[in-house]
Amino acid sequence: MGFLIYNEKAQLVLVKARDCLDSDKLRFACCKLKLKHGVTNSAEIPSASSVVFPRKLDSRVRVDVPRPKKSRSRKDKEDEEEILVIKGIELDRNKFVKFDVFINDEDDPVSRPDNTEFAGSFVNVQQKRSDGKRKSTVLRIAITELLEDLDADDDDSVIVTLVPRAGIDDVTIGGIEIQFAS
Q1: Of the candidates 82, 91, 85, 100, which has an alpha carbon nearest to the alpha carbon of residue 146?
Q2: Could you tell me which residues come within 8 angstroms of residue 10 by beta carbon, excluding any fewer than 6 positions away?
Q3: pTM for this structure?
Q4: Interior angle at CA 50, CA 39 and CA 116, nearest 5
Q5: Cα(104)–Cα(159) distance, rounded to whole angstroms?
Q6: Which helix (H) or strand (E) is 140 found in, with range?
Q7: pLDDT, tens only, 14-72
Q8: What is the pLDDT of residues 38-54, one digit of tens each?
Q9: What is the DSSP letter of 47?
Q10: Phi and psi at residue 106, to the nearest 5°
């Protein structure tokens, strides 16, 4: 089966259905993109205790965060939610700020988009106040189900990545830890 269509040069071209599976036959090439997150070897990821906090969020931050409890039963998971806590987020309340949070399994030797789970985002909506005061806040993200999806339930720690997206020129992070909430 084929179709006659006009290409971008106004030339009539016969396109067969089977050709749609091969971009070379269609003479179409996607542009090469350089991804921001890159590929990182897990040996390069510092532990949460070795990273100095408070720390400016002027670039991507990756830390190996220890888990207080591992291998919890189904009942324990129902009773207590495992919470990722990013504490001491200091920022100018008059600026729009956004950063994303990703979690990896500690056993993955390489961190890529296909083996990383998106945990959530922090967003500060710009407030028009003339006092110029800074705001200090905390981000809490429930990660029990996310850890199950990663098969990281038996791991001693997880790799947390903070990826700045907007307005991060004057943002400070006070620390990252895992807590439990009932």
Answers
A1: 82
A2: none
A3: 0.71
A4: 30
A5: 5
A6: strand 134-142
A7: 878 777 676 666 665 555 544 444 444 444 566 665 678 899 999 988 888 999 988 88
A8: 444 444 566 665 678 89
A9: B
A10: -65, -20
